[in-house]
């Protein structure tokens, strides 16, 4: 085809087709839903009370050529007939447009056939460009586009003059101009992540369309070349950028290069079991991660410091920009009402349940012969058998019908404006959510980093203690010293007066059980003892504090003759061998009895 500078396996009808009847609308719906359709179909609708669409069907057809069919349909009984025949949420009317891909996944997932809105002629360029882009992407997905090899195209080189939205301007060696289309480079990747001003490019040039096809020059054509590109660009231990491709409850898939995705398990993302990955990531978001293994590729998203600068991502074309860039800093809150977010078109159109329309007075008037129309009835004598009263009644009802239609049109305009306002608010809310996700992930990474540092410091302290030996010869004095140090480090200065260490004693065999019981560190026992003595243990669900009972559930608590009650607190959880701390709550304070296994119920 001459217009696109690409070759096709099949060809859609030339020209723009108009749907002029309910029967044709039903036939269009049938074609869209029947398997075996060979090309995408663009359906652009004419809004009510208008004779032409807000988009430009001619420009769409010129751009897509014979890669897609372009259909124009009015909003009237014709569009209602189309809507009744289509699955829910897949209809189109009211000036909107839609591209129906060859793949029928859009039938159950209407988001795969995006509804493009237009509210006035001012939206002409936007909806036209959107439908062109959707149609070309659908043609690519259907396998209708492949690099041209026939005569007529030329191998040409040039320099990129600039990238404007989804198009780039290239000055060729002979100073003629060519364009590069985003849809005909790397699907799903914005053109400014492929090309940059001043870059030298080479590709197949079609003189008829002046389009330059750069796909043969792409550095990463498949998963194998992408994998080689990662090995060349990064080393194990590097902090790198990735694009979120998919999010599930227990994993997030990130894209390192087009065609190369890596799945990151939840354990490598966050240590907080309450986190929901769907609330942490958005598809398309750029995130920093650490490359921890090369064969197979393994990444961590919980091991990146804020100060670390990611390695530059590879470029998709020689001399091009990094295909991924770090997220932009969060914008400051607006300081004036003038800084409102731009109004974005609504994302989806909710189609009402369409019932067959009842005849209106306007319909009845149209069915009268010309000599029986309302205006004629007032100007000429009544013909035999014509009821002038009925004709006058129809005339009045027609005027009321016109007034009602005007009121409905005004109301529709208000609803469209409200829909645009709500869509703008939704866009702003979505942006805020993404910013909060990024901020939360940063805070969570900082928390995990501090936890690792604390654990490392505790390990060093334990190692120092083991090397240096006890500071007291009396084991009980040593244990009390450790309890006091833990309390001093754990309780903030401002809270020490409210959370003093209660009086306590150690049973004769307590320290022996601490030393003999394996699988639990002495530091953990000391920490839980502090929680008991300061009263914090009562508010920690993980400690599972409860009185020790004499038997099965419902039996009496274990008590001593002096009135002390035996209590049990968890040092570990989730296993039969989990360790427990037993202590007596006495009139004067606490007496720590022993450390035991979960199934050991001796006081």
What would the keywords be for this entry?
OB fold (Dihydrolipoamide Acetyltransferase, E2P), five-stranded mixed sheet, disordered N terminus, alpha+beta, Glutaredoxin, 33% helix, 20 strands, single chain, 603 residues, elongated, five-stranded antiparallel sheet
CATH architecture of the domain at 16-141: 3-Layer(aba) Sandwich
Uncertain ranges? 1-9, 336-380
Strand arrangement, major sheet? 1-3-2-4-5
CATH class of the domain at 16-141: Alpha Beta
Strand content: 15-25%
- Topology-level CATH name of the domain at 16-141: Glutaredoxin
Number of strands: 20
Structural class: alpha+beta
Instruction: Summarize the amount of helix as a percent range.
Output: 25-40%
| Overall 3D form | elongated
By DSSP (H or I, 4+ residues per run), the number of helices equals 13
CATH superfamily of the domain at 16-141: Glutaredoxin
What is the mean predicted local confidence, pLDDT?
A: 82
Folded structure, characterized:
The protein has helices spanning 22-33, 57-64, 77-85, 105-108, 124-141, 223-233, 277-280, 361-367, 374-379, 388-468, 475-490, 510-516, 522-534, and strands at residues 16-18, 41-46, 69-74, 97-100, 115-116, 154-164, 167-172, 177-181, 200-206, 211-213, 239-247, 251-257, 260-265, 286-294, 297-300, 504-506, 546-547, 565-570, 579-585, 590-597. It starts with 15 loop residues before the first strand and ends in a 6-residue tail after the last strand. Among the domains are: 16-141, Glutaredoxin, CATH 3.40.30.10; 223-300, Nucleic acid-binding proteins (OB fold (Dihydrolipoamide Acetyltransferase, E2P)); 361-453; 475-597, 2-Layer Sandwich (YaeB-like fold). The strands form four sheets. Strands 1-3-2-4-5 form a five-stranded mixed β-sheet, covered by helices on one side. Helix 11 packs across helix 13 (522-534). With 603 residues, the protein is an alpha+beta fold. 28% of the residues are buried. A hairpin with an 8-residue loop joins strand 18 (565-570) and strand 19. The chain is 33% helix and 19% strand.
């Amino acid at each position: 085809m001459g217009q696109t500078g690409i070759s096709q396996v099949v060809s859609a009808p030339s020209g723009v087709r108009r749907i002029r009847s309910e029967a044709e609308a039903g036939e269009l719906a049938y074609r869209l839903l029947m398997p075996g359709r060979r090309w995408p179909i663009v359906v652009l609708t004419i809004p009510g009370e208008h004779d032409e669409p807000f988009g430009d069907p001619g420009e769409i057809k010129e751009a897509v050529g014979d890669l897609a069919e372009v259909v124009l349909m009015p909003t009237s009984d014709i569009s209602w007939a189309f809507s009744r025949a289509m699955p829910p949420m897949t209809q189109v009317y009211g000036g909107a447009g839609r591209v129906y891909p060859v793949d029928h996944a859009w039938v159950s997932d209407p988001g795969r056939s995006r509804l493009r809105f237009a509210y006035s002629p001012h939206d002409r360029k936007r909806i036209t460009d959107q439908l062109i882009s959707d149609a070309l992407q659908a043609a690519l997905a259907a396998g209708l586009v492949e690099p041209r090899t026939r005569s007529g195209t030329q191998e040409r080189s040039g320099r990129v003059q600039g990238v404007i939205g989804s198009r780039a301007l290239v000055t060729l060696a002979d100073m003629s101009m060519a364009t590069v289309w985003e849809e005909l480079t790397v699907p799903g990747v914005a053109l400014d992540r492929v090309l940059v001003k001043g870059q030298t490019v080479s590709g197949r040039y079609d003189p008829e369309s002046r389009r330059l096809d750069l796909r043969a020059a792409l550095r990463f054509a498949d998963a194998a070349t992408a994998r080689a590109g990662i090995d060349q660009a990064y080393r194990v231990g590097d902090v790198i950028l990735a694009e979120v491709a998919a999010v599930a409850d227990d994993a997030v898939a990130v894209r390192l290069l087009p065609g190369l995705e890596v799945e990151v398990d939840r354990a490598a993302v966050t240590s907080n079991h309450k986190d929901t990955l769907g609330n942490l990531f958005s598809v398309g978001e750029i995130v920093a991660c650490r490359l921890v293994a090369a064969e197979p590729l393994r990444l961590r998203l919980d091991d990146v410091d804020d100060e670390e600068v990611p390695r530059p991502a590879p470029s998709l074309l020689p001399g091009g920009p990094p295909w991924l860039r770090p997220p932009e800093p969060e914008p400051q809150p607006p300081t004036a009402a003038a800084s409102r977010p731009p109004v974005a078109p609504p994302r989806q159109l909710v189609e009402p349940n369409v019932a067959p329309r009842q005849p209106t007075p306007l319909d009845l008037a149209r069915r009268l012969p010309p000599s029986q129309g309302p205006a004629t009835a007032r100007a000429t004598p009544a013909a035999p058998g014509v009821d002038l009263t009925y004709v006058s009644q129809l005339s009045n009802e027609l005027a009321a019908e016109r007034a009602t239609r005007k009121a409905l049109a005004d109301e529709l305009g208000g609803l469209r404006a409200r829909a645009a306002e709500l869509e703008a608010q939704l866009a702003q809310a979505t942006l805020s959510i993404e910013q909060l996700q990024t901020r939360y992930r940063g805070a969570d990474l900082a928390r995990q980093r501090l936890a690792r540092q604390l654990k490392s410091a505790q390990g060093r302290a334990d190692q120092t203690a083991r090397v240096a030996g006890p500071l007291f010869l009396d084991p009980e004095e040593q244990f009390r010293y450790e309890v006091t140090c833990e309390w001093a480090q754990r309780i903030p200065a401002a809270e020490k007066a409210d959370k003093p260490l209660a009086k306590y004693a150690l049973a004769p065999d307590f320290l022996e059980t601490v030393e003999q019981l394996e699988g639990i560190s002495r530091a953990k026992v000391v920490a839980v003892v502090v929680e008991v003595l300061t009263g914090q243990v009562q508010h920690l669900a993980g400690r599972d504090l409860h009185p020790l009972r004499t038997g099965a559930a419902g039996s009496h608590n274990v008590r001593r003759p002096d009135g002390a009650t035996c209590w049990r607190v968890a040092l570990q959880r989730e296993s039969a061998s989990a360790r427990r701390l037993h202590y007596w709550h006495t009139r004067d304070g606490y007496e720590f009895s022993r450390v035991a296994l979960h199934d050991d119920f001796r006081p």
